[in-house]
Amino acid sequence: MDKVAIVTGSASGIGFETALALAREGYHTYATMRDIKKGDKILEITKKENLQLRVIELDVNNENTIKKAVEVILDEKKRIDVLVNNAGYFLVGCLEDLTISDLKDQFETNFFGVVRTIQAVLPTMRNQKSGIIVNVSSVAGRIGFPVTPGYISSKFALEGLSESMRYELFPFGIKTIIIEPGVIKTNLFATLKKVTKPDSAYKEITEKVMKGLLMMSEMGTPPQEVAKTIIKAVASDNPLPRYPVGNDAIMFLEAKKDKTDIEFENYIKKELFS
Ligand SMILES: NC(=O)c1ccc[n+]([C@@H]2O[C@H](COP(=O)([O-])OP(=O)(O)OC[C@H]3O[C@@H](n4cnc5c(N)ncnc54)[C@H](OP(=O)(O)O)[C@@H]3O)[C@@H](O)[C@H]2O)c1
């Protein structure tokens, strides 16, 4: 039987590599993106490697495009085995500098976009009694950090959602997993949305954290590593709830595990303020 995979945000970075990796594993892959004009590169590789990959439109903020994409897939393939919720963007700015609208937009894509897409595939997966949902969170979904509270809280919300739906869906044979990359070398940093008020009280910390993030992004883990982890998790009969990716993610999560909240806060403060 042909296995079918959907990836959101496949125009670049982790989504691009994951869609290709799934197609190379033999999945009929729907590399979805909000602007299909960005699909030329993935289609060129598809043709060269003779893969089963199609580019279709899906904007996670637009219910109609999600509905239409799922209709097309079910019409063509009659099933959905893997959904990778990857689309997202990076909002940077301290809480007092952000507007409610900045925060709502961040949640619209990073959290509600995931909810919308999951709800659109669940009836099919439940009827099949099988499927796996892969939610691309972040190490930022487990660890608070200054200057990125909007992004971090959207990923914390995604972690809570994923952990809860895992219980709801396992009786129907549907698996849920969370991917927690550290800093990955992708477009995320070039396309981030930075918000600072002209008279911001947080200019110094914002610039310091931004500088550190941009430096780290240059040395980030390649997105292919995230794709490899997703392939391994999807192939597992009993996938773990969470998969960190990258040495930085593993280091931070290990440090958090071994420390009390106060000890961990002091560790982050030392990294940031000394
Ligand atoms: N890079 C990192 O360090 C890192 C670390 C941890 C987690 N992550 C997560 O990994 C995921 C992928 O990010 P990336 O690093 O691969 O960055 P990226 O190259 O910027 O990819 C993000 C993708 O999401 C798409 N997207 C944004 N809004 C969308 C929408 N409304 N509907 C559909 N697609 C949309 C973008 O498409 P457009 O080209 O049309 O904007 C882009 O292709 C994100 O969820 C991010 O939070 C990244």
Automatic annotation (TrEMBL):
<dbReference type="GO" id="GO:0016491">
    <property type="term" value="F:oxidoreductase activity"/>
</dbReference>
<comment type="similarity">
    <text>Belongs to the short-chain dehydrogenases/reductases (SDR) family.</text>
</comment>
<dbReference type="InterPro" id="IPR002347">
    <property type="entry name" value="SDR_fam"/>
</dbReference>
<keyword id="KW-0560">Oxidoreductase</keyword>
<dbReference type="Pfam" id="PF00106">
    <property type="entry name" value="adh_short"/>
</dbReference>
<dbReference type="InterPro" id="IPR036291">
    <property type="entry name" value="NAD(P)-bd_dom_sf"/>
</dbReference>
<dbReference type="InterPro" id="IPR051911">
    <property type="entry name" value="SDR_oxidoreductase"/>
</dbReference>
<protein>
    <submittedName>
        <fullName>Uncharacterized oxidoreductase yusZ</fullName>
        <ecNumber>1.-.-.-</ecNumber>
    </submittedName>
</protein>
